[in-house]
Specification:
single chain; mainly alpha; A middle domain of Talin 1; 2 domains; three-stranded antiparallel sheet; 25 helices; elongated; disordered N terminus; phosphoprotein; transmembrane helix
């Protein structure tokens, strides 16, 4: 979830779009000797002609070669084979070393890909759109434009009318008390303001230092707001003197302020949760904390005129728009606003789940849904903590953290489900875990890259990616899928087919029989086949797959780092030579990581605790529940990251996100589950149903076919997404697995 990405921003040297492929610089390359500068220029000309590079900025200190000139000359002197082998270098720019490490880690195999910044961005680098998101609603614009907008009308319908009416009622109460009459007049004026606050200003009247200045200022008018100052707002020498000791103030704080503060608090929370109405939340919060606590004679409310000059004095509130669609980028201490809003849901889930154990307040379906929704923000916090620690640490620490906590979200749920199934003697939990594993594999191979291609293809006609780095992930994916399903294929070949509920169709003992619930029995002859052949094969595969994963890490991160060809540019704009201000320090990120993991374990325990009635009473196949809900909900933060990378024409990282998750499922998660069953016996065996085998293998073959040429468009993405939905339809109509 990128919080600082701005659409349409002018590309600069230190911009926030570092992941766009750049033309290779012949002066510095780690991929051995170059094949010739003419070939380099030819590749650059081709990419520029296709519109993939855009403005090169200050990464290259040589003029761009026109495509019409470089293409014929290169093709005359170099063969087509040589030019096709030219490597397009990806040059990244970052504001500081920590951000550079984070960007570099995105391209490393086995590291979590993270789009958002882990350090505070320089304020001068942000666009005016983002700067407006963080404004305090106290800036007067020269021209605010029309205030009649859809967002302002929505404010009037949701909050303005009843908030204004409440101010009128409080004003009446304050007038009745007599002593609170000044506050009654203030509430009356604020009733008109909060009915339609747009294009109006609330200013704090300054207290003159001398009595002479006070008297001399009577009758003056404002050049900005125009017109004479009303008598009620004329500053007097006693303004603000002994404010907290007045009787009117005591009446106000007892009768008026609590009611209005409660109303503004409700408006603030509601507007904040709606996200696009965050300006309304700021408006209410500032009114409660500043305006309502000022002496009434120091509050000035006026309507702005377009041609007026800025007003001298402090402006407390000045709002033009109630809604801003760009607030999805808003962040609090580096945390996206969506993750902030979903964090209270985690607390509600834990309290409701463990306090209301007998289900007096809510049922199992509600608690299961809340537990799954709580996993989404926790996955975000775990991802940001891992990215922060990796960016501030060396390679070894980053690799250990990613390998340890990279799959903690899924493993937590799988292990708790297997434990519950073992305690209840219910094999259905093991089948649901297998369905979730298969659903994660199929979804990350088909749905994640397909959706990124479709959304990225809307903005970019054709997207290119590093086919060599994708080839490494594809090879590991082929190896991992073959290893995971090897015991299943072995059992199909050597297992004994056992069927139940057989009926003679022809009434002839030698005729045809119609049977149901057929499966391969691995426990024939006291389990000789399983314990003597299948189980040793499972343990062997569980050892080889993690070993292959480590070899892949060593290959891509040590011996063949040139595959990714990533370089961090030293070019910076003035003012960027400062130390990094990280959002989360290493210790803070570690504490958040551990707390998020602990909460994740609790939410997973609640999800498995309340999934049993859903599996028992639901008419939907347990296959479908595992493949969709349990598999894809924890991956939503990764899907959002992939979409953001694709929108920035960086499809390589979008593809790597899906591939890395799929590889980790096969090479890390499944072996860990097998290892767990050794120390804690469960019903989990590495023998999958035919539907899982065929769906997984078909998905991997199709994905590799699509990614062969290193380029794609929205049509190919649509194909992947459609195939994924077809497989979901198959799972939806499939009968429940045996044992459920």
């Amino acid at each position: 979830m990128a919080t600082d990405a701005e659409p349409g921003r002018r590309r600069r040297c230190a911009q926030d779009t570092p992941d766009v492929p750049k033309v290779p610089d012949s002066r510095g390359d780690s991929d051995g000797p170059r094949r010739g500068s003419l070939c380099d220029r030819h590749c650059a000309a081709i990419n520029n002609a296709q519109g993939d590079l855009g403005d090169l900025g200050c990464h290259l200190h040589r003029p761009r070669v026109p495509p019409a000139v470089s293409t014929p000359s290169c093709c005359q002197q170099h063969s087509e084979e040589v030019c096709e082998s030219c490597v397009v270098k990806t040059t990244l720019t970052a504001e500081n070393a920590v951000e550079a490490n984070k960007l570099s880690n995105n391209y490393k195999f086995g590291f979590k890909k993270w789009k958002s910044h882990v350090t505070a961005r320089p304020w001068e680098d942000r666009s005016e759109i983002v700067k407006e998101l963080y404004s305090d609603l106290n800036v007067i614009r020269a021209s605010g434009g029309s205030t009649l907008t859809y967002g302002n009308v929505l404010y009037l319908l949701l909050f303005g009318w009843w908030l204004s009416l409440l101010y009128v009622l409080v004003a009446a109460v304050m007038f009745v008390t007599v002593m609170g009459a000044p506050y009654g007049q203030l509430c009356w004026d604020l009733a008109g303001y909060f009915l339609w606050p747009f294009g109006k200003v609330i200013q704090k009247v300054e207290v003159p230092k001398s009595h002479q200045v006070c008297e001399a200022s009577v009758g003056e008018s404002s050049a900005l707001l125009g017109g004479p100052t009303p008598l009620r707002w004329r500053p007097r020498c006693w303004v603000g003197a002994g404010y907290w000791h007045r009787a009117s103030t005591a009446v106000w704080l007892c009768l008026g302020y609590p009611v209005l503060a409660l109303a503004h608090g409700l408006v603030c929370v509601t507007a904040w949760l709606l996200i696009v109405l965050i300006p309304v939340a700021k408006l209410s919060a500032r009114a409660t904390a500043r305006v309502l606590l000022l002496p009434p004679e120091r509050v000035l409310i006026r309507r702005l005129r377009m041609t007026e000059v800025p007003l001298e004095g402090e402006v407390i509130l000045c709002c033009y728009r109630a809604a801003n669609p760009y607030y999805y980028k808003y962040a609090v201490d580096g945390i996206n606003v969506f993750a902030v809003n979903l964090l209270p849901l985690v607390l509600v889930t834990l309290v409701l789940g463990y306090v209301d154990s007998p289900n007096h307040l809510t049922g199992s379906a509600v608690k299961f849904s809340l537990a799954l929704l709580s996993i989404m923000p926790l996955s975000y916090y775990i991802g940001m903590a891992i990215a922060s620690i990796s960016a501030q640490s060396n390679f070894a620490v980053g690799a250990v953290v990613n390998a340890t906590f990279g799959s903690i979200t899924e493993l937590t749920f799988y292990i708790t489900a297997l434990i519950k199934g073992s305690r209840e003697g219910n094999r259905c939990y093991a089948e649901v875990v297998k369905s979730a594993l298969t659903g994660t594999l199929v979804g990350c191979v088909l749905f994640v890259p397909g959706l990124c291609m479709v959304i990225g293809g809307i903005r970019h006609q054709e997207q290119r990616f590093n086919s060599r780095s994708a080839g490494v992930s594809s090879a590991l994916l082929f190896l991992s899928v073959g290893g995971v399903f090897a015991p299943t294929l072995f059992s199909k070949v050597y297992g004994k087919l056992v069927c139940g509920e057989c009926h003679n169709v022809t009434q002839n003992p030698l005729g045809h029989y119609l049977c149901h619930n057929c499966h391969f029995d691995l426990m024939d002859n006291n389990g000789t086949l399983y314990y003597s052949h299948v189980q040793p094969l499972v343990y062997t595969v569980s050892i080889l797959l993690p070993a292959a994963y480590l070899i892949g890490l060593f290959f891509t991160l040590k011996t063949h780092t040139h595959i990714y060809d990533i370089h961090i540019s030293d070019c910076h704009m003035p003012g960027h030579h400062h130390s990094a201000v990280v959002h989360w320090s290493r210790w803070r990120a570690l504490v958040i990581l551990l707390l998020s993991t602990l909460c994740m374990s609790a939410c997973a325990d609640l999800a498995t605790e309340h999934i049993s009635p859903i599996l028992t009473n639901s008419t939907i196949s347990q296959y479908f529940i595992g493949v969709t809900v349990l598999a894809m909900v924890p991956e939503l933060p990764e899907i959002v990251n992939g979409i953001q990378f694709a929108l920035q024409n960086n499809l390589s990282l979008s593809i790597e996100i899906g591939n890395c998750i799929a590889v980790q499922v096969c090479m890390l998660q499944i072996p860990i589950l097998v290892l767990f069953t050794i120390f804690y016996p469960t019903n989990f065996t590495l023998v999958f149903s035919d539907l899982h085998v065929y769906a997984s293998m078909f998905s991997v073959v199709l994905m590799n076919y699509i990614f062969m040429d290193g380029k794609c468009d929205y049509f190919q993405g649509t194909v992947l997404v459609m195939v994924y939905f077809i497989l979901l339809a198959v799972y939806f109509f499939a009968p429940s697995p045996s044992g459920c």
